[in-house]
Design goal:
Two copies of one chain form a homodimer.
Chain A: H1 5-22, E1 26-29, H2 32-39, E2 51-55, E3 62-66, H3 70-76, E4 84-87, H4 99-109, E5 116-119, H5 128-137, E6 142-145, H6 149-153, H7 159-182, H8 189-202, E7 241-250, E8 253-263, H9 268-287, H10 294-306, E9 317-320, E10 329-335, E11 348-351, E12 355-356, E13 361-362, E14 366-370, E15 375-377, E16 386-388
Parallel strand pairs in A: 1-5, 3-4, 5-6, 8-16
Antiparallel strand pairs in A: 1-2, 2-3, 7-8, 9-10, 9-11, 11-14, 12-13, 14-15
Helix pairs in contact in A: 4-5, 7-8, 9-10
C-alpha cells in the first residue's frame, strides 16, 4: 500500500462528511483515481467495470470488480477480504448482461436498494449505459450526481502525497533532459519518445517510475500549432520547433512539465512568442500565494501577455495529483476567469501557458505547490526556449 | 493519414449501411478508435469530449472537439476544413457548461434536432452526464443505442490493416525478447518495464512504434495470481515467475502477446500449469479456421485442459485491432461459450489462455489472423515457460 491505513481512513472520513452534506447514503465510485485514493487499489483493470462502494454507516468501503482482479484488490488495498466482491466473467463485454446488474443485485442483497445513491455522472468509467442499468435494477433508490465529490477531497494534498509528487518531479526533470538531449536534426520523433518513456519508468536508482496518465506529447514543426499530437517516425529538420509535454509519475502521483526546443535558428516570431510566455509564467509564479483566487493567476497572465498583443483562449492550468489514463488533471479547480477557488497550502496545480497559433506554438509549464507564503515549482529547469544548435 | 481516402470512404459506406438497418439518421461517435477508423483523427485529446458525427444523407462526417485540437483534426483527418467544428474552451471541466450542450446546439443549427440519433451508450468516452445533457438539449430527437455499431464494421480487417498489425507484431516480439533478456534475480521490475516501453516506441529501423492502449503488465511472484498489476521497483528473487503481457502498436493497430518467465527452478505445479496451458493453446491454433463459431475454440481449449483437471472461468480471447487506452479489445466477439460468431478470413483475435490460481498463474497468448484455410499467429516466439537460470 502507498499510504498508512490511518491516511486512507481519514480520506474516508472526509468523503463521508461530504456525503452527509449532500444527503448521499451510498456512494458508487467509478473514477479509478478516486478508487485508488480511498482504497489503495491499483491495477490496469479500469477497462472493465469496477467500483468502490462507500456506505455512510459502514466502516469500510467495498470493492466490486471482475473475478480475475479480486486478487489484485487483496494485494493492493487495506480492505477486509469479505469486502472484496468479485463478479463473474460472463458480465464482461456481453450484450445480454451488464456489470451494473450485478451491482444492483448486490446492493439489494445488502439492503441498500431504497437509499440515496450517489453516482459519478461525469466520469470516463461511468457510461450512459451503466446509469440506465442501475436505474432499472434499483427502481426504489434515488440517484444523485456525485461527480467530483471525492475529487474535491483530493484537492489539498497530505505531506506524504507531496513527497510522492516531489519524486515524480525528479523523474520529470530527468525525462525532460533526456528528451532535450536527444532532439537533433535527423533524429526520429519516436526515438525521442522512447528515450522519454524509458526514463519515466526506470526512474532513479532510489525509486522507480510509474506510468503517467498521459503519454509524452511531442508535436514538432507546424504540428506545434496544436498540443495533443503524440509522435511519428519522421526525422526532425533544421528549423523545427518541438514541444515536449510529459510527466514524471510515482505511485500514481504526477508532476507534469512542458518545455519547447528549437532545432537550429529560431524564427523571430518564435523568439517573441517564447519570451512573452516565459514572462507571463514568471509573473504568475511571483504573485501566487495562499488566499488569492484561482482566477487572479489567470488575470496576471492575461495582463502580462496582452502588453505584447497576445491572447490565450484556453485555461491557464488545473489541479492535479493522483491519476489514471486518460488524464492527470483532477477536474476540480481550473485556473481561468470565473474560478473563485481560494488557494490554500498544499494545493497542487499544473500551470501550463501554451500558446498555439496557426502555424506554430510554444509551451512552458510548471507543476507547483501552494506553500504557506507563496508557491514552489516541483521541478527546477530553465524555462526559456531551449536552443539546439545543429551538429 | 494512415489509409487511403478511398478506404475511409468505404468504412463510412459500411457504417451508413448499418445505420440504415437500425433506422439511425445521425450517429454520434465518441469511441476514439471509431473516430480514428472513420476519419483518421489521432491525438491524445479523448480526455475531453469530442465526437465524429455521421449523418446518413451527408457525404462527409463532421468532427466536433475542443478548439485547441482543431488543428490536430486538420493535420490527421481527410475531412474538409468546414467539417471541423471546434467548441470554446470554457466548456472544459466546467460545472455550468457541458460540451454536449454545444453539440445539441450545433445539431439544431444544422436542422438535425428531430431525427433518430444513435449514441454509443456503453463507451468510456460517453458519460452518463453526456447522455442526460443531449436528451435535455434535443427534446424532439429520438435516441437509439448504437454501442458497437462501428466496432462491428471494424471486425474484418483490410489488407492494409493486417499489414499494420504485422508491423505491430514485429515490435511485440522485440519488446518481449527485450523483457525476457533483462529479467533476472536482483533486477528491478521497473527496469524491465522501462526496457519494454523503450522497445515498443522505438520500434525498428524501418518504422517506429506507437503507444499501446495498455501499458506492459508484469506481475511477478504471488502477484501472478492476477493479470492486471503493472510493476513496482522491487527486485526479482530466485524462484519468482514473471508474467509479461504487452503489445506492439503501429499507427494505433495492436498485436498483443503474453509469455511467462521463470527465474531459477520452477515449482512442479508451475511446470504442470504451463504445460497444460501451452497444450491448450496449441490445440486451438490447430483447429481454428473460417466457418467455425468463436465458441468452438473455447470448447477445444476447455476439453484439452480439463483432461488435466484445470478449469478457466474467464473468456479465452477477443477481437482486437485499432484502439486507444484503456483497452485494445474491440468489445465485439469474445471467444467463450455462447458466442456464435462465425469466423471469417481477416478477423483478428487475441487468444489469451491465462490461468490464475490462488498463489500463482501462467499466461501464454497469441494474436492471430483467420486465413483462408486456418489461422496464423502474428508473432513467432516459443510458447513454453521461459526458463532463466540464475547467473
Amino acid at each position: 500500500m502507498s499510504f498508512a491505513t490511518s491516511e486512507y481512513k481519514e480520506r474516508i472520513r472526509k468523503t463521508k462528511e461530504r456525503m452527509m452534506q449532500k444527503g448521499i447514503d451510498v456512494l458508487l465510485i467509478t473514477d479509478p483515481a478516486n478508487i485508488n485514493y480511498l482504497s489503495g487499489y491499483d491495477g490496469w483493470s479500469f477497462y472493465v467495470h469496477q467500483m468502490l462502494v462507500v456506505i455512510i454507516d459502514e466502516e469500510q468501503p467495498m470493492w466490486i470488480g471482475r473475478g480475475m482482479d479480486a486478487n489484485a484488490a487483496k494485494v493492493t488495498t487495506w480492505l477486509y477480504r469479505e469486502n472484496i466482491i468479485p463478479y463473474p466473467d460472463d458480465y464482461i463485454h456481453s450484450d445480454t448482461k451488464h456489470p451494473m446488474d450485478f451491482v444492483a443485485g448486490f446492493l439489494k442483497q445488502i439492503g441498500q436498494e431504497k437509499r440515496s445513491i450517489g453516482v459519478e455522472m461525469e466520469n470516463y468509467y461511468f457510461t450512459a449505459k451503466s446509469y440506465e442499468q442501475l436505474k432499472k435494477g434499483l427502481p426504489n433508490a434515488s440517484f444523485q450526481d456525485a461527480t467530483l465529490l471525492v475529487n474535491w477531497v483530493r484537492l489539498i494534498k497530505s505531506d506524504a502525497e507531496i513527497e510522492y509528487m516531489k519524486r515524480a518531479a525528479i523523474i520529470a526533470e530527468k525525462a525532460m533532459q533526456a528528451g532535450i538531449e536527444l532532439i537533433q536534426e535527423g533524429i526520429r520523433e519516436c526515438d525521442v519518445a522512447a528515450k522519454i518513456f524509458y526514463t519515466q519508468i526506470t526512474g532513479t536508482e532510489e525509486f522507480g517510475g510509474d506510468y503517467p496518465a498521459i503519454v509524452p506529447l511531442l508535436p514538432s514543426g507546424e504540428k506545434t500549432s496544436t498540443p495533443h499530437l503524440t509522435w511519428t517516425d519522421e526525422r526532425y529538420k533544421d528549423g523545427d520547433a518541438v514541444i515536449l509535454e510529459l510527466a514524471g509519475c510515482y505511485k500514481r502521483y504526477h508532476s507534469p512539465l512542458a518545455r519547447t526546443v528549437q532545432i537550429g535558428k529560431p524564427k523571430e516570431e518564435m523568439e517573441t512568442l517564447s519570451r512573452v510566455a516565459v514572462e507571463g509564467i514568471n509573473a504568475c509564479l511571483e504573485m501566487i500565494r495562499p488566499g488569492i483566487a484561482a482566477e487572479e493567476i489567470e488575470e496576471t497572465w492575461r495582463k502580462t501577455i496582452e502588453k505584447s498583443g497576445f491572447v490565450k483562449e484556453s485555461r491557464l492550468g488545473y489541479s492535479m495529483g493522483c491519476n489514471y489514463p486518460p488524464d492527470w488533471g483532477e477536474h476540480t479547480v481550473s485556473i481561468r476567469k470565473g474560478d473563485k477557488t481560494i488557494l490554500q497550502p498544499n494545493m497542487t496545480f499544473h500551470l501550463i501557458p501554451g500558446l498555439w497559433l496557426d502555424k506554430y506554438g510554444f509551451e512552458v509549464s510548471e507543476s507547483i505547490r501552494i506553500t504557506e507564503t507563496g508557491c514552489e515549482t516541483f521541478a527546477k529547469l530553465p524555462r526559456d526556449l531551449t536552443l539546439k544548435e545543429l551538429v
